[in-house]
Amino acid sequence: MTPADTITPTTIAELECRARDLIVPGERRILGITGAPGAGKSTVAELLVSKLGPELAVLVPMDGFHFANSVLAALHRTETKGAYDTFDAWGYVSLLRRIHAQGSEGNGVDEDVVYAPEFRRDLEEPIGSAIPVRRSTPLVVTEGNYLLLEDHPWPLARDMIDEVWFIAPSEEERMERLIARHMRFGRSANEARERSWGSDQRNAERIIASANRAEHIFSVTDQRQRSA
């Protein structure tokens, strides 16, 4: 578990101010938002990008690098979908490198737009080239479970990120939110609990163990109301 005395209570408005402080006009900054399944990192990231607006920020989720279901079936990994080794980690590293270089002048990179993939929960599949990242956008927010993982090659992705925030709600709140999310996308109550306390929990323990490598660990005090 994350030590309670390392967690800073905050609000979406305060995080917005922190995100604005990272922005340098004419330069590229990458902000990472991570946490265990059900922590609410996607909600936080989406709210921040929405508040900053498209001229300042764009959201690039790590989940776009899920292996396709056909690949998972071929690897006999369908039941562990969501584990760190069911993602194209090298693809994510390559994208972050392109995005990082895109915003730097004089680096020989001439990509006005880089297209990132997204993950569609209604399809349970990644969709390629779905998110345009423009050179003129100063802040890229990337969110996902494994931004702080030490297993190769995940640290190479971390090297491209200027700052990582770890979102750490109470375990009760996180699990409640996770079960509700599984049910929202078609699982029965029993299936949702089994998944949340099974493979999701094993992933969560690995992710929580990486929290001390974040620049900040936050509990977002107004997140429950905004997620409802």
TrEMBL record:
Domain Phosphoribulokinase/uridine kinase: 30-183
InterPro entries assigned to the protein according to its UniProt record, in alphabetical order: P-loop_NTPase, PRK/URK
Pfam families: PRK
Keywords of this entry: Kinase, Transferase
The keyword Kinase is annotated on this UniProt entry: yes
Domain of life from the UniProt record: Bacteria
Gene Ontology MF annotations: kinase activity
NCBIfam families: PRK09270.1-2
Name of protein: Nucleoside/nucleotide kinase family protein
Organism per entry: Leucobacter manosquensis
